[in-house]
Amino acid sequence: MALPVRHSVAGPAIRRTDPSSRKITYMSDLRPETRSVHHPRPVLDQSHPVVTPLYQTASFVFADPDEFAVGMTEPDGAYVYSRLGNPTVRALEDAVARLEGGVAGHATASGMGAVSTVLLGLLGAGDHMIAQSTLYGGTATLLADLTKRFGVSVTYVPENDPDAVRAAVTPATRLLYLETIANPMTQVADLPAMSAAAREHGLLTVVDNTFASPVLCRPLEHGADISLHSTSKYLGGHTDVIGGIAVFADGDVYRRVWAFGQELGATPDPFAAWLVLRGMRTLALRVERSCANAAVLAERLAAHPAVAAVHWPGLPGHPSREIADRVLSGFGGVLGFDLAGGSAAASAFLSKVRLALVAASLGGVETLLSMPTAASHRGMSDEELTRAGIAPGTVRVATGIEHVEDLWADFAQALDALDY
């Protein structure tokens, strides 16, 4: 007996909503702590799901071939293929865009995916850019590669010197690249002054806001054009996902980068986006606790005889303290400290801690330790490390949400065991 043929009946295609084509007013009057909890959710008949659903699908079915064609080329077309757009990924993009005060977000498969998509999408062969001199090691390596492969020249300037930006501008200059809080020495960029100098010359300002998160700083409010995040860090918050995102103040710039992003293919998996959305619901609480823990550890480390210096913008003597007071609403959960015994002491310290974990990344619920010379900045020369202020005995601390007295007890026993 022949089986009946089952015909697929496709209703109206699920459409992407291009945030850059409309002004986002939803929850715009609410504080970041509230926005991080309440994300955009789809309407299902007469109800909404409490949690954004996971659309774990590669493709979407169409009844209208014309609508299919539009969805292949436009960010506000129907969902066609998850490399071009996915409802769960779009929910993440909208949620972070609203946190940052932007018109649109573009999610990627990693933080470096966001950096690469933006820079490659905006720069061409022979262009020039300006960047602050203290950068994440992965970004510094990417810029060196852009110079070698495509002739993109880079001028490095201090993160707090707008006159240096003005002096560095050439007819080929396209953008200024900054980090809200630098890794790992925690210099804070003077975003208002630096962005203003860039704007005077028609430059875009791109800011890596990962270390601050939208809870502590929203660069677009200080004049930046694009704010980047590794969503693996504070936004995801549980050290279980890799992702990135770029948020845009201008819809035309967003569409330009979106078009290149589809060619590059640095697209996040829907499940990764869903994990970040889940983590964001506790973002404000985690950041608050992390900052509080960092404050206690920074003060106590500064008083310990084995420690030569502590780098955290909340300390009175930190060179960025005045800028941090103006730009940040908290001093961050990452700090660096230099051990008097150099690299041998740093290695010994990491081998003696029992509670804190020696691991890459930051922004999770657990406290993580690393040596920048062997981890985040391992690809930099001795000269570049010196210019960045990173010593052989520098240890980076990314605080979690543990009880701070338990953390300090762990740090103290490891420090006391050193030969200083």
- Roughly how many Å is the radius of gyration? 23 Å
Hey, roughly how much beta strand do the residues contain?
Answer: 5-15%
CATH architecture of the largest domain: 3-Layer(aba) Sandwich
Contiguous uncertain segments of 5+ residues: 1-12, 18-26
CATH superfamily of the largest domain: Type I PLP-dependent aspartate aminotransferase-like (Major domain)
The number of domains: 2
CATH level-1 class of the largest domain? Alpha Beta
Helix content percent band: 25-40%
Average pLDDT confidence is 90
Structural class: alpha/beta
Number of strands: 12
Helix-strand layout with pairing:
Layout: H1 32-35, H2 65-71, H3 87-100, E1 104-108, H4 111-122, E2 128-132, H5 137-150, E3 153-157, H6 162-168, E4 173-179, H7 191-200, E5 204-208, H8 213-216, E6 226-230, E7 244-248, H9 251-264, H10 270-280, H11 283-302, E8 307-311, H12 321-327, E9 334-339, H13 342-352, E10 357-358, E11 368-370, H14 382-388, E12 394-398, H15 404-416
Parallel strand pairs: 2-3, 2-4, 4-5, 5-6, 10-11
Antiparallel strand pairs: 1-7, 6-7, 8-9, 9-12, 11-12
Helix pairs in contact: 3-10, 4-9, 6-7, 13-15
Please tell me about this protein's structure:
The protein has 15 helices and twelve strands. It has helices at 32-35, 65-71, 87-100, 111-122, 137-150, 162-168, 191-200, 213-216, 251-264, 270-280, 283-302, 321-327, 342-352, 382-388, 404-416; strands at residues 104-108, 128-132, 153-157, 173-179, 204-208, 226-230, 244-248, 307-311, 334-339, 357-358, 368-370, 394-398. Residues 1-12 and 18-26 have low confidence and may be disordered. It is globular. It catalyses: L-methionine + H2O = methanethiol + 2-oxobutanoate + NH4(+); L-homocysteine + H2O = 2-oxobutanoate + hydrogen sulfide + NH4(+) + H(+).
